[in-house]
Amino acid sequence: MNYDLIVIGSGPGGYVAAIRASQLGLKTAIIEKESLGGICLNWGCIPTKALLKSAQVFEYINHAADYGIKVNGAGEVDFKAVVKRSRDVAEGMSKGVQFLMKKNKIEVIMGFGKLKGKGTVEVKDANGATKDYTAKHIIVATGGRSRELPNLKQDGKKIIGYRQAMVLPQQPKSMVVVGSGAIGIEFAYFYNSIGTKVTVVEFLPNVVPLEDEEVSKQLERSLKKQGINIMTNSTVESVDTAGDLCKVSVKTAKGTEVLEAEIVLSAVGVSTNLEGIGLEEVGVKTDKGKVLVDDYYKTNVEGVYAIGDIVKGQALAHVASAEGITCVEKIAGLNPEPINYNNIPGCTYCSPEVASVGYTEKAAKEAGYEVKVGKFPFSASGKASAAGAKDGFVKVIFDAKYGEFLGAHLIGNNVTEMIAEVVTARKLETTGHEIIKSVHPHPTMSEAVMEAAAAAYGEVIHI
């Protein structure tokens, strides 16, 4: 065998798995067809946050007077420079992964990897030449791509996915965003903030439909206040791209409405990259576009594992990383704890930010819990007032019988940095009263978690 482990795909699942494997003494190689870091570092998590930061800075400039600062003249967006900064950030992170591969003595094999018989991976390079590599263990971490609807085929120019949305040659004057999950909402916020007229079309009754209903409604109010047109309970039936502007036919409760926009961004989810990687040839079982695995990501084929977007669980970078570590530790003979998918945080990086973990109030009740619910608005937070960011709240849910921390739902400034407290608390089986008695620093946004917990038990101080 050439290697103890070969990883196909170098996204946050693949490269993290490879590093952990090397730490545990496994001779490891990683196969990547495009750029180290995968979609997350190059076309997802990282460059989008760079775009969002530019939008936030622009908003600060435009509202400088609210903070007692005079700015001579209006702020102006240099769209090409914003995009270039985003790409530079992504390139820097990808180089960081290259450094980590060298540091951990992981061989990087550039090309398209395909399973080929027991313990063998065929790699086709950019010139079409193929070479076989062997390993006792193979982890497939090929990730996902923008999902296409039959009536919303992406042409890459007028109907686009998230990759094109990050590198448009010029800023569009108008955009229709189809889908209001994290990807759709983040791009809607970004483009609206820099002056594009944005409409969001969502099939379900609420934006960010996986979130607690109160959070969804608060976010919708905030986005509308910013000037984004929100159309829920609506479906895009067709898009006519023949003219200068796209004509988007949207079916609503009141009938069909035709919207006009320069660009239509399809943000309706993620499709898995399972094609052409040899799963069928070696007999790996799949179901509905996902590879079937056990709690340690082993497939039905000996020596073949799968992690990340292509398996059960949320299609999130941090999930893929956790799965990669768990999988490798099991391969190496350790005894890792299976991942609790109900304790995975989800974050949306618009403004206000959204972060959540665990049960929504509705889901907790449906699961049979009698609940105690506490809310604390950021309008009552000294730090939020000082920051000029009073939109939003923290909502926490506890089991009334034993005090178990069932879930938390946050909307507001910087809440994506606050949710880890709740994830850790739930992992340690912390109760509501333990949160209340954990002294939080003042003034901080994080006090709102403590205050919300106190509100659930009738002990809140500042409201």
TrEMBL record:
InterPro entries: Class-I_Pyr_Nuc-Dis_Oxidored, FAD/NAD-bd_sf, FAD/NAD-binding_dom, FAD/NAD-linked_Rdtase_dimer_sf, Lipoamide_DH, Pyr_nuc-diS_OxRdtase, Pyr_nucl-diS_OxRdtase_dimer, Pyr_OxRdtase_I_AS. It catalyses: N(6)-[(R)-dihydrolipoyl]-L-lysyl-[protein] + NAD(+) = N(6)-[(R)-lipoyl]-L-lysyl-[protein] + NADH + H(+). SUPFAM superfamilies: FAD/NAD(P)-binding domain, FAD/NAD-linked reductases, dimerisation (C-terminal) domain. Its EC number is 1.8.1.4. Pfam families: Pyr_redox_2, Pyr_redox_dim. This is Dihydrolipoyl dehydrogenase. The gene is lpdA_1. Residues 3-324 form the FAD/NAD(P)-binding domain. NCBIfam families: lipoamide_DH. Binds 1 FAD per subunit. Belongs to the class-I pyridine nucleotide-disulfide oxidoreductase family. It is found in: Cytoplasm. Residues 344-453 form the Pyridine nucleotide-disulphide oxidoreductase dimerisation domain. The active site is a redox-active disulfide bond. Its cofactor is FAD. It comes from Mucilaginibacter defluvii. Keywords: Cytoplasm, Disulfide bond, FAD, Flavoprotein, NAD, Oxidoreductase, Redox-active center.
